[in-house]
């Protein structure tokens, strides 16, 4: 809709700014550098073992001292110098002040400043430690002696006299050095966090490509390689989670507590990390097991063959359909109606011209006020042309066009109305169901109004979002397994009974999705021919409850049950099967899946969940291969499948987090559903544990 | 010419140019609004901007590990704040962007304050307006005129806003204005002045047809804003009030805490983007579809998640589901409140009469209908006053004008003085004497045919018969028929020649 747009105009003032700043800064930088160089000279020799006279000579050589006679008063406090109030020289700039106004620079301080400047040139020496350690010891050995002696003979063993101005400048400089050297914890953690994120951005797409390809039964990548990568990516996610959590809790136990802004920053970092993980991790599809993979490969082969056959069929199909429509069109046209199935009859008709058409329509149509108006205007045009008023003709012709468009539209609407009536008759039975559905919708709507869901991006409490928070599994590992089996199968049937509901809900939107004239007998084929969204919705038009495909989309378990035993019967290509596997890559949906899970048997990865407390026994040791439910799944069409334990645990955690979230927002109905899920998951987990042990 | 995108690009560029690392965005009151219209928080978080601060906030901590991106209007106060900030920098490095032209002297005083050399960038990025929709912006000025003249502050802000708009879209336009309005002329001159002064900035690639800036005064069509509208965005604006994409729902009876204030932004709300210009009736059915869609994703109580596969699918879809449920509850609440107000205020009936007043010429029927509605207790005093205002505008010079009677009715209805005064005010503001064009009676053949067509189609929807006068103006403009004696060009005639077609 919008054409590409380049960045708007900009104007930089940077060079101007720098010019002005340089003028101001130069002075300051030169001053500082001068002081530092002098300071270095003053501390370059061993002060303790040098005579005071010699020191003084050196000091005077560094900077010329101001003449005593030139300064009768202390320039800072204004007191008169005398025998008692003696003059003191600043060793850094040579100026004079009284003792009160004099400042002292300790050697460690001086060294810190000078070595920092040196370090900035040669970075390999450790910046903060060298001055302190060396000069700390020096100070300890000397200070006690020198403090006495300095008072006596004014020999400055470990400090250098200077004026307040020089000292100020140096202090400022020190502050800058400190800031440069000090890296707060949050920055260190944050840098690590960003590295992890970059890694994910690199690896995740690669993995997804692999997994998608493997799940489609292709043999481009090796399964082992992919599972290694998966473990690697997952580890990075856990690291991200751990790091961001650490950032979140930085300094929380400090006294005084950190500034609210610091906490806000930490929360935001954590929040964005959570968003990142949520967005990326949930898109991480799982891999097929080795056996599944073999199965998939086989299936793909078959499918390729089937597809070829189907393609041929589709071509035939569409030809047939085309024929039919043509004949249909012809018959309708014979009745003098406008055919509107394609929705674009207007240009066609206009190309043929409307006049002959209006003539053939006969008396009844002529009474249409629009047509009358059209006639009037055409005669106006003729008159205007005769009068040679071209601009008049222009406007009139425009009117005429508008009228024609309007007329075309009316005709189209009539045609649509007609065909709609036909369709309505077909829909009559379905409407009944729809009404039921609407009532339900009404009820749901009430619930949603009550349910309060956060819609604003601004006011989230980030501490609440912990999708990966782990809790030790407190569920006792008893054998509840069979209860689950029974329960699920009974509810299963109720779900299957409900199938007409969603399909009828779709009805109103989809009435026009396919040509109505084509009977239902075409649907299976047309569905096969198209693998797009239309196809996935179309089957609902067909009300045949026995259709395996329709059932398949409505509830995954049903799909499984139809898929398992009836693979051989179901010769047609089922797009949903493919879709499910490609999107979810669901290893559970395959009832034949045996257990050797590439993730679970990796003993060499003990750090897989570094942040988690051990969850009721080590899943990595016990999970592989010996799954007792393998038998189950063979005997019953909808038996329980083995589940990757790790994933199960992860999901338990996820659901816990969602429950928490839902509770916080007061969505009680959701909490209930979620709790139910949680219980179920836990039971499954317990059951599996029970089985493997 | 997408203004939302234009501003968004500026903001993205600022953030990109500051490089990696944690960042704080330092803004003033206005730029905060400007940025919030084009970026959501989660979107900007992904770009490592973790904190948002006001330059005038005193309670900011020293955080030397953050980079500061300053996006400020070039006002005197902001420059002063910035000078203080640079003297004692709280962040490690500063990237400074002004939303408009800043004077050389201000740059100098800023440079002199930057003794610690923390400033890394000083630029002008012309995002100096609130981008509401891709084709609509606002300056959020309430009341820009005193009488018929500009308030000086408002004129200067409007000029800045318009020139920033032109710069952000890289357009150097011809300017036309509405001759009947002194204010339009003043603004046109001011904009021209800036373009002349900053001619270097306005050096853009010439296009075959030069862009055009047409400045209109609302007083030319006082009717449109008096009518109740029936499209989604317009209704929200009219009935609930929308400010920088935020709707205050706190007065809605029984509102939950989470929905007190909601954000309606076409940028990241697909449903809103698709429905904002649709009729209220259509929205109703669309919301129903949305719910049904949502229903399919929502775990149902009866159809609990049975298999692990179900559960897995649910968990994987959960964030999406959550986002969707947020959208659903938001729109259900908003539309619900709209429909409640519509029935409470009897707006369907009111709107029908409003449309009759605006589009038809049957005085006696109009008068009768207005009188009838004034008796209706459900009609609010605000709507009652608007009806009388519409009547007054349309039948201002009608021979049997009975405005005094209606005014009496208003008084009897108990409509407050504040509203009653508006009737005479609106005549003074947009009455026949002021208008440059005729709002009510079509003259040429085209318009008559149009009205004829309208008569045919009018039956379809009585609530949307009226077409704003702006529509016609733009139509004429596009066809090159806009009269130069009503909307003259500003500037020398040589430039004008470039535009004249054929």
UniProtKB/TrEMBL annotation, chain A:
Residues 400-436 form a coiled coil. Residues 68-171 form the FYVE-type domain. InterPro entries: Rab4/Rab5_effector, Rbsn_Rab-bd, Rbsn_Rab-bd_sf, Znf_FYVE, Znf_FYVE-rel, Znf_FYVE_PHD, Znf_RING/FYVE/PHD. Transmembrane segments: none annotated. CDD domains: FYVE_RBNS5 (cd15716). Residues 118-150, 492-518, 538-563, 575-644 are annotated as: Disordered. GO terms for molecular function: zinc ion binding. Pfam families: FYVE (PF01363), NPF (PF16601), Rbsn (PF11464). Keywords: Coiled coil, Metal-binding, Zinc, Zinc-finger. Residues 631-644 have a biased composition (Acidic residues). Residues 118-132, 492-504 have a biased composition (Polar residues). Residues 133-150 have a biased composition (Low complexity). This is Rabenosyn-5 isoform X2. The gene is RBSN.
Automatic annotation (TrEMBL), chain B:
It is found in: Endosome membrane; Golgi apparatus membrane. It is a peripheral membrane protein. Keywords: Endosome, Golgi apparatus, Membrane, Phosphoprotein, Protein transport, Transport. It comes from the Eukaryota. GO terms for cellular component: endosome membrane; Golgi membrane. It holds the Pfam family Sec1. One of its GO terms (biological process) is protein transport. The keyword Transport applies. The keyword Nucleotide-binding does not apply. May play a role in vesicle-mediated protein trafficking from the Golgi stack through the trans-Golgi network. Belongs to the STXBP/unc-18/SEC1 family. This is Vacuolar protein sorting-associated protein 45.
